[in-house]
Design goal:
By secondary structure, the protein is an alpha/beta fold. The protein has 5 helices and 7 strands, in the order βαβαβαββββαα. It binds inosine 5'-triphosphate and magnesium ion. Its EC number is 3.6.1.66.
């Protein structure tokens, strides 16, 4: 096993932080969060997950002097032309109000029948060694599913109670956290990141 390595996770989302801890701490990564370093959230002015993840990672490197991992992610619903997409956290207007975001999504899909409610979760991860790193590692993971008409389950965060995983016959909020972390957009992206870091 390799020596402990330190990383700042450039996120204020408690659900993401829980997932990163579960995935990385067993691999001897020592995680701190941007809040631990007094770093405030950047304005997410990018038009892609990639741009926003780069902004978050750079700010966390600058504020901490440590390598940073940033996650910009979201839900893209086919019947809504890919919305809420990069605006997933602020879909309802208020930043990070999961309940209001889920309600808005159900309203937007009220007239969309089963069979036309396909969606993907997307996750872009950026690993930046320092604030001027000219070659940050950028990876992404996607997870296909369908949007339910009623929420199911208590686990996860964000849109998980509405995201149906056909292969499991469960919503993401009904999956164990271990299973979600293994097969999710974030889990897949992180596996790709770790593979690239070892090259
Ligand atoms: O920017 P940070 O501080 O990381 O936290 P955030 O919640 O604002 O994160 P994003 O800007 O990347 O927005 C991602 C949103 O997409 C949704 N989302 C992403 N991954 C998810 C997951 O695994 N389960 C449920 N919803 C998810 C959820 O609404 C998140 O708030
Ligand atoms: Mg955000």
């Amino acid at each position: 096993m390799s020596a402990t390595r330190s990383l700042v996770v450039a996120s204020n989302n408690a659900g993401k932080l829980r997932e990163f801890r579960a995935l990385l701490e067993p691999l001897a990564w020592e995680l701190t969060t941007q809040a631990d370093h007094g770093i405030s959230a950047v304005e997410e002015t990018g038009l892609t997950f990639v741009e926003n993840a780069l902004l978050k990672a750079r700010a966390a490197c600058l504020g901490s002097g440590l390598p940073a991992l940033a996650d910009d992610s979201g839900l893209a619903v086919t019947a809504l032309g890919g919305a809420p997409g990069i605006y997933s956290a602020r879909y309802s207007g208020a930043q990070g109000d999961d309940r209001a975001n889920n309600e808005k999504l159900l309203e937007a899909l009220a007239d969309v029948p089963e069979g036309q409610r396909g969606a993907h979760y997307h996750c872009v991860l950026v690993y930046m060694r320092h604030a001027e790193d000219p070659v940050p590692i950028i990876v992404q993971g996607s997870w296909p599913g369908e949007i339910l008409s009623l929420p199911r389950g208590e686990g996860g965060f964000g849109y998980d109670p509405l995201f149906w995983v056909p292969e499991q016959g469960l919503s993401v909020a009904e999956l164990s956290s271990e299973l979600k972390n293994r097969i999710s957009h974030r889990g897949r992206a992180l596996a790709a990141l770790l593979e690239q870091m070892e090259r």
